[in-house]
Amino acid sequence: MGFRFDGDALMPAQLSFHNVTLGYDRHPAVHHLDGEVAPGALLAVVGPNGAGKSTLFRGIVGIVKPLTGAISLGGLDVRDIAYLPQIADIDRSFPISVFDFVGTGLWRHTGMFGGLGRRERDAILQALAAVGLTGFEKRTIGTLSGGQMQRILFARVLLQDASVIVLDEPFNAIDAKTSADLVGLVQRWHTEQRTVLAALHDMDLVQAHFPETLLLARSVVAWGETAQVLTPDNLGRARRMCEAFDDTAEACAGDAPRPQAA
């Protein structure tokens, strides 16, 4: 398995969550998260709108700092994690070409103002070819469709060559062909033993391609094998937890009951 809870004797963790609570200006979004993700895991993170999925991912990549607890990265620097944000978080009015946008995936190696040699330029072209966008190099990102934009986000992740990949809603609002192509890249990363976490809404896609699932509703509802997590009872519980949550509540403190593995 690619997951474990404290006390389970499995391989060393790639990511560890120690009583983590995340939020904004004391506004709670994820509560008392405990658990570990093993190297090479392919983990879907699911839950209703407002469940805290995006906040969890922002916590992993260091955009949001824990209000309580800690997130351990298994010896990695946060810069070693490839992060694919939601399309809505990208300013598509910024006048940058597809080539230059994808090239930002090399910043970890070249620096923000580092020059691009032939090797780097070839790598960008290869990444674009891998996502089916050869010939789009000079187009600005504002001219792309939603599916094309998602493809160049994946191309940027390819260039980062990271051991941990965090994908926030990578298959939303795209056509079936694009979704299938990008799922193929995720499967490739899994085969390469990279650790992949993806926030998803499509339960059929999760059941077909993701062996492990974390069901989140501000707190953990279930975490384990996908078939055991995505039960009607668990999904109903997650929905009721989010509907009942008090958005005016302050971040809680102290210990909370530890969730059980599914």
Automatic annotation (TrEMBL):
Keyword ATP-binding part of the UniProt annotation: yes
Alphabetical list of InterPro entries matching this protein: AAA+_ATPase, ABC_transporter-like_ATP-bd, ABC_transporter-like_CS, Metal_Ion_Import_ABC, P-loop_NTPase
Keyword annotations from UniProtKB, A to Z: ATP-binding, Ion transport, Nucleotide-binding, Transport, Zinc, Zinc transport
Gene3D superfamilies on file: P-loop containing nucleotide triphosphate hydrolases
Molecular-function GO term, any one: ATP binding
Signal sequence coordinates: none
Limits of the ABC transporter domain: 15-243
A family per Pfam: ABC_tran
One biological process term in Gene Ontology: zinc ion transport
Purpose of the protein: Involved in beta-(1-->2)glucan export. Transmembrane domains (TMD) form a pore in the inner membrane and the ATP-binding domain (NBD) is responsible for energy generation.
Family: Belongs to the ABC transporter superfamily.
Record protein name field: Zinc/manganese transport system ATP-binding protein
Lineage of origin: Bacteria, Pseudomonadati, Pseudomonadota, Alphaproteobacteria, Hyphomicrobiales
